[in-house]
Amino acid sequence: MAYFPFYMDVEGMVCLIVGGGKVASRKVFTMLEYGAAVRVIAPEAEEEIAALAEMGRISYEARACAPEDVDGADFVIAATSDEGLNRAISRRCKSLRIPVNVVDVQEECSFIFPALVKDGDIVVGISTGGASPAIARMLKDRVRAAIPEGAGAAAGWMKENREMVKALVDSQPVREEIFYRLAELAMSAGGGLEDGTVKRMIERKLEESHG
């Protein structure tokens, strides 16, 4: 059965990453991009992980991880080459209902990572449920190519102006039309629009609705 895609705000949540190799390093950078509070436990770690720890961007403990280390984490990523340790971490997490991902071992996971395309606040996740990572990568490339340049900036601009539109327009159907049209214009402009242009468009739509 296909996986259901939950989108969750992980900013400030504690993400424990067990392992310090290249795969763990990639997960560290991914989770930092989404604002998680990253904690890494591994006897040794890639230079990038050590550097991030020195800068204070993550917490790094240079030691072997025990299953009990997952206690208190909001979610866990096990990325070690020790299958027994990964399995023990997975079992501990599941017993505590802590979401866990064991890299490349789907049956040990309670959540999986999709192939991600990110542009600002726009995030597209693609998953084949583990059936074919190659297809997921192929679709990721196609989705990235299909997203217009500046789409992320346009979404940020829409977010900034959302409350203004809601304050000026009471009618929900008219408001939805305005949001749709503003999104089209902002995407075409590769970012945002001037306040005067927005207000004139709102005024025209309101006149049409009362017309």
TrEMBL record:
Instruction: Give the SUPFAM superfamilies listed for this entry.
Output: NAD(P)-binding Rossmann-fold domains (SSF51735), Siroheme synthase middle domains-like (SSF75615)
For biological process, the GO terms are:
siroheme biosynthetic process
Q: Could you tell me which residue ranges the Siroheme synthase central domain spans?
A: 120-144
MF GO annotations? ferrochelatase activity; precorrin-2 dehydrogenase activity
Q: What is its EC number?
A: 1.3.1.76
Q: Which keywords does this chain's UniProt record carry?
A: NAD, Oxidoreductase, Porphyrin biosynthesis
Give the pathway annotation: Porphyrin-containing compound metabolism; siroheme biosynthesis; sirohydrochlorin from precorrin-2: step 1/1
The UniProt entry, under PANTHER family, shows: SIROHEME BIOSYNTHESIS PROTEIN MET8
Query: What name is this protein filed under?
Result: precorrin-2 dehydrogenase
Organism of provenance: Enterocloster lavalensis
User: Taxonomic classification, please?
Assistant: Bacteria, Bacillati, Bacillota, Clostridia, Lachnospirales
